[in-house]
Amino acid sequence: MKKLTEQPSFINEFLDELTVNVTEMFRDPSFWRIMREEIIPAIMLNHKQFKIWHAGCSSGEEVVSMCIMLKEMGILHDVTIIATDLDVNILERAKQATYPVKNMELNEKNYIRFQGTRSFKDYYREENGNAVFNKDLLMNVSFRRHDLVTGDIFNKFDLVLCRNVMIYFNQALQNEVLKKFHESLFKYGYLAIGSKESLIWCDYANRFIVVNNEEKIYKKIKD
Amino acid sequence: MSKYNLNNSYKAVVIGGSAGSFQGVVKILSQLPKGFPLPIIMCLHRLKHVRNGFVEALSIKSVVQVTEPHDKENIKKGSVYLAPANYHMSVELGLYFALSTEEMINNSRPAIDITLGTSAFVYKEKLIGILLSGANKDGALGMKNIHDRGGLTIVQEPSECMIDTMPRAALAATKIDHIMKVDQIVEFLKELDKQYR
Q: Is the ipTM, as predicted for this complex, more than 0.95?
């Protein structure tokens, strides 16, 4: 605690240890298929260009997955993505889009189950035991430090992804965070949470409808 | 006086299992006394990417519908829970579940050690831990946690297991109160049920 007060830069190291930074690409391939086949096309009915927020992006695997999907749909150029996390060290890692090669087996399996249209290996090159993803994938992504609990509303989005992040919050915090997501979404925008997360008891739950219960995708229907 | 010197102070039963445990779990759930008073919390190794089907398969013959809890879901008496695919499942002090996507433990997510260990922390001496057939050592540490906190430990008779690595690892790791075949576990749970009538 002494070190925390005397050495401000240590807070980031401390947060890095404290926050949970484990994720995989195309986690829940069925979720990604629904994104590609239903949610993104539904957004595009109204807007050719749109904005996505990855809230609590951690080391960026979900962001890379999203960009790969959008690229395969031929719309990567039309989408602005903002990826935020509390932890600046993990954001640095996310920007690098570099991951241990040993993780690629699982990621590739997920990609195949997602039924991606290319070979997963097309998206990265191997360097010293790491898989370095093509930087072009992330050209429309901006990474920012943002605290979901204390941070302000900073933009409006068509789609917010916050999957398996709020499981680390208690119910009171989840309630507050859902209010922020509500405010950060355009009317009829979409919110995706983790497959085993639940918002039904939150104050703002009735301002959303369930679009896909299995994949936990919601749509804001009331301001 | 029951054969196992039981009483009605127990608050939960937690079950771990892996390869070869499915038949045993089905048998236990199908012969569970109606109105069994305690929650049964199960962590069984399963395919990470297959979210559907497992809970349904377990429920077909089960006396009680098996459910995969959501994050922060309260633990109810008499309910049967299964750790969902690709999440660790912890039991928390307010008697609810917390799920997490942290890294795999013993090559497993859900990891039995997490469910057993957190249950031991919450229920202390009021917990019964049962470890069934399996091919790795996950659960051994959890069984030790249960024993160390005063809970009752049971493993499936290794000779009956399709793969006995898991119960043997628990036997090596801590004191196991009972070594039982699945039929005996069923009888044990019936005896336990009578204590609450």
A: no
